[in-house]
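Hello again, I could really use a second opinion on something today. I've been staring at a protein lately and its backbone has me curious. You're getting the sequence in one-letter code plus the fold written as tokens. I'd be grateful if you could look everything over and explain what you see. No rush at all, and the record is pasted right below:
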Amino acid sequence: MHKECTTIPGLFLHRLAEDENRDAIFIKRNGVFQSLTWGQIGQDVQRAAAALVRLGVEPGDRVVQISENRYEWIVTDLAVQVVGGVHTPIHAPLTGAQIVWQIRHSDAKVVLASTCDQLEKLATVDAQIPEYVKIFSFDPGPSTIGRHSVGHWTEQVSQVSESECRKVLSRVRQGVKPESLATILYTSGTTGEPKGVMLTQRNLTSNTLATLEAFNERREDVRLNFLPLSHIFARTCDMNTWIARGAQLALAESRESVMADCAAIKPTLINGVPYFYDKVRRSLCEKGLADKPGVLRSVLGGNIRLCCSGGAALPNHVYDFFWERGVPLLQGYGLSESSPVISVSNEANHRRGASGVAIPGVEIRIADDGEILTRGPHVMSGYWKNPEATQAVMQGDWLLTGDLGRLDDDGFLFITGRKKEILVTAAGKNVAPVYLESLLCEDPLILQAMVVGDGRNYLTALIVPNHEALAQELKVCGLPPIEMPQVLTDSRVHALYEKRIHQRLSELSHFEQVGKFTLLGRGFTIEHGELTPKLSLRRREIENHFAAEIRAMYPADVEC
């Protein structure tokens, strides 16, 4: 690791100089993990960077990538930064409408899509993609979508010459500076309109090196990556730390293959969200194997040294399960706007229920109202084309996280709640409930709605029916009138609302869908303390009042 490096391309070039012939990455091809050296990665990055130059990508130009995790994702990320471009990764599960919004808002010049499935989503919104945008795919696919031609990225890369590759490296040294914008990451807003988090080279590099200093990653470690690289958690804590430390990285074939990939690659480190670790726990409990000596370590490959959790709060019972079975599970905390790491735990410094302590160079302060504030080189430069939103989360040099917490006497950070109206699912997905609720309440059959799902495996909703509209709809459907309270549990009414909810959310991604819902016999009121004078939802009060209904939508986990 070279602490004087101030850009991600600088860290990468340093790694190439140090370890050109050393195995760096394991990727699965034809069902078998194969290794590539740092030198081979370097050659692929140079060729991809030269191809981007051929396409006219200049420093500051935005390059969109829509892809699941794969080797090309890593090569593209590094190539875009090598030429001074701004990598704008879009989450693979998003819909065509969501993708085109981000392409247009970022003013992207080039779009790289992974598969035919992603191209099909683009085809549905092609008319909204500016004509000047150049589109390429990693996998072979259609040569056109609507009015846009689609190039095969492998062919584009194969056309570059050796001299073009050599010229690319000079661009790194001349044009990529610590203050250069490295990436734009779109995250959910409370109104549903995404905000583009702008992170500089200094943001990414400082956070990477400080995380390594706080967390004891070793050069001989093998890390298995399965979290989406389009999220900053995996990008910093899996990918960038791998480059900086010079360890080894294995890419899981898919989310479904993680356990099999653990058995094949035998990782020593894993980053995951609480949902993953709880899924491992529940699986062992259901099979009656939870207390079999060594079984937890075995299912994770047998060589596991440390597991790390982030993206959402780690339940204490999951923390206990791992530690009691000799597998350290460490929790950290951060957000996209902070590159993302603010605090981490390590083997020598951890505490049940805590998210660790501040990493070097990062400050944490608790405001008078309990909100967590942070300051340091990790804080974003702002939201892309949204100065109002930037101003709303900055207090001088301090970033307002929107989370509530406390610091104990030893500096451990405990998250106690959420101030901003953003849900974070157990899988670490950010969901804007206000936006979903506004879509649901557009339906004439729904008077009020509240979406639940913070720290949960899926979203649910409390629905207040519009009884007059429902009675009319039942008549239109040829059904007899149904009186209260039978209407709340009638299967025909439930099917009707299920269809309406699906229709209202059909343009959203899968993790923004409502998995279950409950029809309520009364509405949310000011008198019950459930609404503010401005008629905004008081979420905690509503959750307390309807705790039984919410519990019923989340069947109890299997206990050991």
Observations:
- The longest strand covers residues 398-407.
- The chain has three domains: 37-177, 213-424, 432-553.
- Residues 213-424 form a domain with the Rossmann fold fold (CATH 3.40.50.12780).
- The mean pLDDT is 93.
